[in-house]
Amino acid sequence: MVAAAWETEAQKCREILTKSIPAGYALADDRLPSPEERSNVTTFIADCGALSPKELAITENGAGELTAAMATGKYTAEEVTVAFLKRAVIGHQLVNFATEFLATEAIERARELDKYFRDTGKLVGPLHGVPISVKEHIGLEGRICHSSYTAWVKNVVAEDALIVALMKKAGAVILFRTNQPQTLMHGDTNNNIYGKTVNPSNRLMSSGGSSGGEGAAIKLRCAAIGTGTDIAGSIRIPSALCGVYGFRPTSCRLPYKGIMLAGGGQESVRCVVGPLANNIDDLELMMRTVLDQSPWEVETSLVPLPWSPVKAFTPQTLTVGVMVDDGIVRPSPPLRRAMEMAQAKLKAAGVKLVPWIGHRHDELRPLLYELCFSDNAAVQKGLLAETQEPWLKLTKRAMGLGREMDIHEIWRLHELRNTIREEYHAKMKQLGIDVILSPAVNQVAVLTEDFTYGFYTGVYNILDFPAAVFPTKLVSDANLDVEDANAQPRNDFEDRELAKCMSLEGVVEGEDLVKSSANVSF
């Protein structure tokens, strides 16, 4: 029987991945626990004995700590690269986050950096030797860039995406590329090429999407900084579900040149690139490093604005708008408890808290998806049809979120979007709000192929606000996090999400539950 066109193309990519895994780094299959034996694998790499004590110590460091250690000669770039590569291979075996390892190039680059340091006593730049991961649809010179479409497997990139080139110039070492959903347009990382990327904290659960490979890899400390993209929460949803830090900058801030996305000319809701990390300082490090190189001189559509560090302030001068509920779907009990904890800490520090009710969210939610798919997803559907690639469950849902519109209706929706943006900002200004604190997702854990509500993040895409996600360190407590059995849903969305929340009770709790996360937008 002749394989379908999509299967042939998918197999090519799987073979590239298999051949890219460096010899001797992978664990034997009999040393790997099944998800049923060990669902939470966040400490497995430290427990399994595959890495030396020094390698484990190296991989526990963030980017800033690593560059400081390399500046004193405590670690070499090659030691750092090899340690993270070893960790990444095992991490991939556990949760399936990689699409290709770049071991040979990474080690060669690390040796070049070490020679430069020996010769000059200086670091190449602020990312000298820092191990970086990159989402697959961010182009790398000489590599296939398919964006999870088998129709694009023949696409070989001529040059690095500008964001990659600037990170490399600053000394970064690119270790591996990461998985993403079919079409890149939904919140669960699964496709016909590589399959599912699962959550390190509970492998029965989703890692989120569309930067789910990045979220899982960063959670397992397989790279110091991850490079993701975000059009409706694609950095922040995986960050929230996996329990790491993530940042969505404003559009036209970081360079987007060289990133492949179907319907790339759609500018009604722009996709942006941004960092994921295990601490907030590393998010700032990536932002500052890229913007300090004036990327707008190459990509002229970018705003020519250098990075502005947060100025020192006293808590008493800060006003935080608190949005516990987006007005459409109430967050689950652990998230409500996390919000209570965050408010208590802010209040104790002297921060002024102001209740925030989302403005015109009932209009913004459909507007987000109508503008993302204003051609009724014709581009995405066409690419899937080219190789007769089967649609996955959440792809089918995403492809039905839009409708075909003529240019005059799109213009009308742009006017509506801009009006609501101005009203939103005016209301914040009227109340003196500096930032909005809200949940990043409505549930802290979601089964694979079951993420269906992303407006807690998507609202900031349609508004084009910068937004960061951070973990609260709370975990589920069956005694504290109890949903009201008599809760009445306000709409069909809430009815569906409440039913999912109820169905997970007793399935994920304690350390098996992803750490609750909160979102800050400003």
TrEMBL record:
Domain Amidase: 79-478
Record InterPro entries: Amidase_dom, AS_sf
Gene3D superfamilies assigned: Amidase signature (AS) domain
Residues annotated to bind substrate: 184, 210, 231-234
Catalytic-site annotation from UniProt: 135, 210, 234
GO MF, one annotated term: hydrolase activity
Source taxon at top rank: Eukaryota
Keywords: Hydrolase
Hydrolase keyword on record: yes
Family note: Belongs to the amidase family.
Protein name, as recorded: Amidase domain-containing protein
Organism per entry: Fonsecaea nubica
